Amino acid sequence: MSLDSPITKPHERLAAALADEMGAVNALIRDRMASEHAPRIPEVTAHLVEAGGKRLRPMLTLATAKMCGYDGPFHIHLAATVEFIHTATLLHDDVVDESNQRRGRPTANLLWDNKSSVLVGDYLFARSFQLMVETGSLRVLDILSNAAATIAEGEVLQLTAAQDLRTTEATYTQVVRGKTAALFAAATEVGGVIAGRSEDEIKALFDYGDALGIAFQIVDDLLDYWGTDATGKNVGDDFRERKLTLPLIKAVAKADDTERAFWKRVIEKGDQRDGDLEHAIELLNRHGALEETRQDALAWAARANTAMASLPKSDLRDMLIDLNDYVVARVS
Amino acid sequence: MSLDSPITKPHERLAAALADEMGAVNALIRDRMASEHAPRIPEVTAHLVEAGGKRLRPMLTLATAKMCGYDGPFHIHLAATVEFIHTATLLHDDVVDESNQRRGRPTANLLWDNKSSVLVGDYLFARSFQLMVETGSLRVLDILSNAAATIAEGEVLQLTAAQDLRTTEATYTQVVRGKTAALFAAATEVGGVIAGRSEDEIKALFDYGDALGIAFQIVDDLLDYWGTDATGKNVGDDFRERKLTLPLIKAVAKADDTERAFWKRVIEKGDQRDGDLEHAIELLNRHGALEETRQDALAWAARANTAMASLPKSDLRDMLIDLNDYVVARVS
Fold first, then answer.
1. What is this model's ipTM?
2. Per-residue confidence at A251, pLDDT binned at 50, 70, 90?
3. Is B273 helix (H, G, I), strand (E, B) or coil?
């Protein structure tokens, strides 16, 4: 994440262009994460919300609404909605993954307990729906409730596919759509919807968010085998957690009997020894799995750019194209 | 729950009066708990949904909509919504309470795992919002998203109040509104809302559901110290789980120093020995805590009946009054 100097990072330029709106979003988030009766709720939420995530998803909503000429107040509500849904899924993910660290800090389930993470996540989901209701748009509620269902479905699918060497690329794409792309796509789609744009334009915004989300997740999964200090990723996490991500799925598909026995031992049985990660990376390279994964990410990024380029030119539109380029620049 | 013969049980008479509608609700539930991509979801959901709960909450929505003269299709959607929200909270509750049994069967978190319970619960929450969106009523969405927030808030409050001897009756009522009454009240309120009744009538329906829910939960908590085989309750569960329910709160408020030391040991420290439950029940009786709790339940039930009796007379209205009487009959 330090490929270039701060001033040129597209998400920072977006944040600068949307500074006023993001200020309003952050104020709304602080206001709505409060609870009159249960102080544990803002404690847990603040731990996550103030941990300094990049606020990518709310920025997508603000940017798309603004580039579509929206001048009402509700893009702020929708951006906060999207961040609440994201935060709720992070809380539940950490319980499901039994994680101890998130964004370099101890997770809520470690600091409090799994119970608090489950229930505070539920609270944030409910709060996110309250925010949507305030917009008065049934279409927005439809889009975001569908996204919430797709997210949960993708997470369950990921759970049942874990450690299963038969996992296909189609299943992987389905999981990624759920865990990442559904919320990206909803975040960009609702920007066009509240601005009252044409169906073609709304579809283009959806396609941009969907493809950006998939590219984003593929790059993340690729860097788990291909990362360097510069990317800030901890190489081998997915391998140790025995996740069937795209590079692995591609290598398993081309494995000979000896290699298949290796994958069965380390992924299915979870019997991992010194040198196994290095051997896994060697197999991924031998079969061109990392390069193919990289090409897939670039193809999704190209789709995102095609969709966005179909919309009227504006500074924000070009920043969203740059953001997309930046996501894959980490592996270009 | 076997105080009288099956034919006279009010919830069974309600079920008979609403048989067609409940058939439609069950069909809708089966349809919407399906998942194209993640078969784990209907497995887990079917385990709970088909476990033979009394479907009290969806019946409240059907009965109130019908007694208010509603003749559209959406009370079916709302009844399914309410049951989905209830099922989702049960799934999450069992994770939070680390339960092994629910309705006499092993819980989903035991049969599958906590992860599945968390994620399938999330899926059902999302599905419930999709169902609400289909009704096209923003007011209904407002009511039910508020209820969902109150439920989660009540659960968090219960979590942080557990084992805390300073818990007040006001906090207890707040918890009970969250864990039980909020969904009862929303279930009855939306029946009047989709039927387009006056604000006074909608308020009366809300008040009925709210008071019924609180009476229901107080009775449940009372029977945990006062139950017999006939009530089907397992006496002492709350004591062993160190929950500050109403009988205990009342007894602790009147405790002398020796008694306070006892409560500190068994509830705060959780150091429970043979004979402690019997001694606790003796203390509850000594201070009239069980009798006072019973009177509180009766007072809430009276409020529920007053609210319902303010509405136009009909067979369904009278069945709802009978249902409320039946709830407290277990302790009358």
1. 0.91
2. very high
3. coil
